[in-house]
Amino acid sequence: MRLRYNFRLYPTPAQQTALARAFGCARVVFNDGLRARQQAREAGQPYIKDNDLQKQVITAAKRTAERAWLAEVSSVVLVQALADLHTAYRNFFDSVTGRRKGRKVAPPRYRSRKDGRQAVRLTRNGFSLRPNGRLYVAKVGELEVRWSRDLPSEPSSVTVIREACGRYSASFVVTTTDEPLPTVEAELGIDLGLASFAVCSDGTVIDNPRVLRRAERRLKRAYKALSRKARGSANRAKARARVAKLHAKVKDTRRDHAHKLSTQIIRENQAVYVEDLCVSGLARSRLAKSIHDPSHCTSGGGRARRAAVRTIGTSTRRRTSWPPDGRTG
């Protein structure tokens, strides 16, 4: 079983510049590959194969004056960026033909340098873990890592991420083994709500953290300050970072609440029964903010259901919101 382990990174100013260069080159290669396939389709030409596209937008492009600077970053970054494009196209084709279940997948879109989240992925030949505890990234250097726990195995790949708030993190893909918790007799049913986050079958009422509601006043002031800054100015960039940090705090608080709650539910119960809500439908009403604030899809019951199935063998059951006969009234 493969899992992701995330850790904070603290690059130096020089390393931040090198990472920004890697983010930019990966974005250019992705966009060049997407543009080449779109132009081939408009011209009535056949779909460009993966190997041919790599030779065109990476190997041949490095020999031109317009793309010679692609050689300044690791080739692993460029190849993996193109692999993301191949995956996006395959997911789109599988969705159109019906091989991929679930919500329809849109065709790949161009990446922008103004996207808040920038990331590059490296395989084993593009990074290594040094004995001093630092993460070495090719043509970037040794990055300081804040290790909060040990990795269960050697990572097969790592994704270096820069968030909109300016934080850097590393996401390692590792292989782990299943270690089921001791069997318990208790079972639990969870009814999700808005006034309270959830009501359990044993009478426990879990309060709604209302993370976004509590941060609304600070966000309002930050957005008002952002609107007063001139576009393209340094002060506007600082104000935008301030807004992003407030949103990151909201996200982190939600995630912390979700992890603690789901871990407690899974460890104390052998079976969990969770209500299956159509959040996307409920969010189209006037209660959209109140429905999204608890983040039921990623918190509590939803996270408990995924974590139980993935890690510790706890069985989960979902109760559908629709009658068996298909009637909605």
Account of the 3D structure:
With 329 residues, the protein is an alpha+beta fold. The chain folds into two domains: 2-175, no CATH class; 187-320, no CATH class. It has helices at 13-42, 50-59, 75-97, 211-227, 234-268, 279-282, 288-292, 300-312, and strands at residues 2-10, 118-123, 127-129, 135-137, 141-146, 157-162, 168-175, 187-192, 196-200, 205-207, 271-276, 315-320. The strands form two sheets. Strands 2-6-7-1-5-4-3 form a seven-stranded antiparallel β-sheet. Strands 10-9-8-11-12 form a five-stranded mixed β-sheet, covered by helices on one side. Helix 1 (13-42) packs across helix 2, helix 1 (13-42) crosses helix 3 (75-97) and helix 4 (211-227) packs antiparallel against helix 5 (234-268). The two termini are 43 Å apart.
Q: How many individual β-strands?
A: 12
Mean pLDDT: 88
Percent range of helical residues: 40-55%
Order of strands, widest sheet = 2-6-7-1-5-4-3
Number of helices: 8
Q: Which term fits the overall shape?
A: globular
Portion of residues in beta strands equals 15-25%
How many domains make up the 3D coordinates?
2
Q: What's the helix-strand series?
A: EHHHEEEEEEEEEHHEHHHE
Round the Cα radius of gyration to an integer and report it: 23 Å
- The secondary structure category is alpha+beta
What's the end-to-end separation, in Å?
43 Å
Oligomeric description of these chains: single chain
Main beta-sheet annotation: 7 strands, antiparallel
In terms of topology, how is this protein built?
Elements: E1 2-10, H1 13-42, H2 50-59, H3 75-97, E2 118-123, E3 127-129, E4 135-137, E5 141-146, E6 157-162, E7 168-175, E8 187-192, E9 196-200, E10 205-207, H4 211-227, H5 234-268, E11 271-276, H6 279-282, H7 288-292, H8 300-312, E12 315-320
Parallel strand pairs: 8-11, 11-12
Antiparallel strand pairs: 1-5, 1-7, 2-6, 3-4, 4-5, 6-7, 8-9, 9-10
Helix pairs in contact: 1-2, 1-3, 4-5, 5-8
